[in-house]
């Protein structure tokens, strides 16, 4: 019997030694030490021994079990260490690989321009307000003294969205909303209001026209406001934006909401460059909102934002500002 125990022990130790994984070891453990394992079977034979041999036999089997348990524990520790080393080796991160370069973030040139325009006009005392891109026909045209079916509206072909609603074609559409606030007593005269925002026109896209573009509009209403104030303000504005030696030129033009109406240009590289439209707010509009046009008058001007960086950076196609090609955008200063 003793030899059987010794044989079994030797056999089990060889099996343990040969294990290459924790799964192998698990199998060997249950084969020798499990409830129905070899050692348990051996122990069951105790009944067939003469009584005086039984205690010794039991003791030997238990000793063998203790030896195997210890051996298995050692082997398990050895295998898990080995498996861990293997995984660490396989999953090793190669920190010498070059990373993906990060571009420094920068603002879009139109955003930069809009911020400059805003700070220039705020410096001249204008308050900035927000308007609506989806606007009522009434504010975009009607409130601005366009007679019904007047051809001036054709110059601003519109995206009509629903009956009475369109995508605003000009930021001048804010005027009626502000005058209503005056009428309701929510705002007091005098006014110095400005707005920057997207405008939309249904027109053929080319190097200087897009279906979507940006405008800035500014207007002032007070006692005794004249073309002199308009010219002074526009000259100051143009000098802040383009340089202190820039001059402003007016030429007669027609917009239903101003009288007189002009287009204005700035002196640029020996010539004149047209920037936008302007004039004195039509008395009809002031009267329509209950503002006494004998006592109060106002000026208004509006221009396209895209024009400004086009001039400044010598960009000859406005579409480049709207396509978001990083090769183009990355050429502008970060701030
Ligand atoms: C107006 O929109 C008037 N609201 C301007 C105004 C305001 C006049 C206040 C008088 C008093 P106009 O349609 O000319 O006017 O447009 C003004 C500027 O917007 C143009 O000079 C141009 O710079 C820009 N603009 C107009 N249409 C487009 C377009 N399709 N794409 C890009 N810029 C445009």
How does the SSE layout of this entry go?
Blueprint: H1 2-18, H2 22-33, H3 38-44, H4 54-90, H5 109-123, E1 127-128, E2 134-136, H6 137-140, E3 160-162, E4 165-167, H7 174-183, E5 191-200, E6 212-223, H8 227-242, E7 248-252, E8 258-268, E9 271-281, H9 283-288, E10 296-304, H10 307-313, H11 320-323, H12 326-329
Parallel strand pairs: 1-5
Antiparallel strand pairs: 2-4, 3-4, 5-6, 6-10, 7-8, 8-9, 9-10
Bound molecules: adenosine-5'-[phenylalaninyl-phosphate].
Describe what you observe in this structure.
With 335 residues, the chain is α+β, with helices and mostly antiparallel strands. The protein folds into two domains: 2-90; 109-329, Bira Bifunctional Protein, Domain 2 (BirA Bifunctional Protein, domain 2), CATH 3.30.930.10. The protein contains twelve helices and ten strands. A seven-stranded mixed β-sheet has the order 1-5-6-10-9-8-7. Strand 7 (248-252) and strand 8 (258-268) form a beta hairpin. Helix 1 packs parallel to helix 4 and helix 2 (22-33) runs antiparallel to helix 4. The longest helix is centred in the first third of the chain and has 37 residues, at 54-90. The model has no long low-confidence stretch (mean pLDDT 92).
